[in-house]
Amino acid sequence: GIFEGVRGQGLMMGLKCRVAPADVVKAGYGAHLLTVAAADDTVRLLPPHKASLQIRSGHFSMWGGDGGAPILTPYIAEFLLRARDAGFVVPEALLQKTLERLSEDLLTGGPPFYGYAQSAHLGFAYQAHAGYVLARVNRAPLGTLRALYDNERARAVTALPLLQLGLALVLQGD
């Protein structure tokens, strides 16, 4: 078979592949299935019913109800943008509500990550990812991105949020 197993069954299901993920993504496009390569051996997919898991705030819930998981929002927004860029029909209201949530969070400092190990890093990582996603559609204020870099970059524990913030700055013309 093509798949070896399931990696996570939250908002975006991951499937471990026995073939190149790019081949699976390409085949999925032909079948109108939204997928994206996530690792050397994994594709992620967003089943259509997952869009119904967006809560009033614009964030998403893993299992329904009002308990949102803000950390998912930039990932889902990026996924929706990639799907739209690939020619899939993405509900405009869903996408705009998601982008508006990210915009507000970027400007206000983002959601708190109380009770998590590395909460300062998670907050910075969330804002950097939000900035990158918004910069892809030219909606990230350059001054906000610069302030995030100048004042908050020391909170990064890993390189990924620094990379995302750097890409956002480049995309916004810095």
Short description:
By secondary structure, this protein is of the alpha+beta class. It has helices spanning 21-30, 73-85, 92-108, 119-136, 142-152, 160-171; strands at residues 3-7, 13-17, 35-39, 42-45.
Determine the strand fraction and express it as a percent band.
5-15%
Sheet with most strands:
4 strands, antiparallel
Helix content: 40-55%
Number of helices: 6
Alpha-beta classification:
alpha+beta
Mean pLDDT figure: 88
Order of helices and strands: EEHEEHHHHH
Q: Trace the largest sheet across and list its strands.
A: 1-2-4-3
Radius of gyration: 16 Å
Query: What low-confidence regions span 5 or more consecutive residues with pLDDT below 50?
Result: none
Shape: globular
N- to C-terminal separation? 46 Å
Number of strands: 4
How would you sum up this structure, described in words?
It is a single chain. The chain is α+β, with helices and mostly antiparallel strands and 174 residues long. The protein has 6 helices and 4 strands; from the N terminus they run ββαββααααα. The protein has helices at 21-30, 73-85, 92-108, 119-136, 142-152, 160-171, and strands spanning 3-7, 13-17, 35-39, 42-45. A hairpin with a 5-residue loop joins strand 1 and strand 2 (13-17). Helix 2 packs across helix 3 (92-108), helix 3 (92-108) packs across helix 4 (119-136) and helix 4 (119-136) packs parallel to helix 6 (160-171).
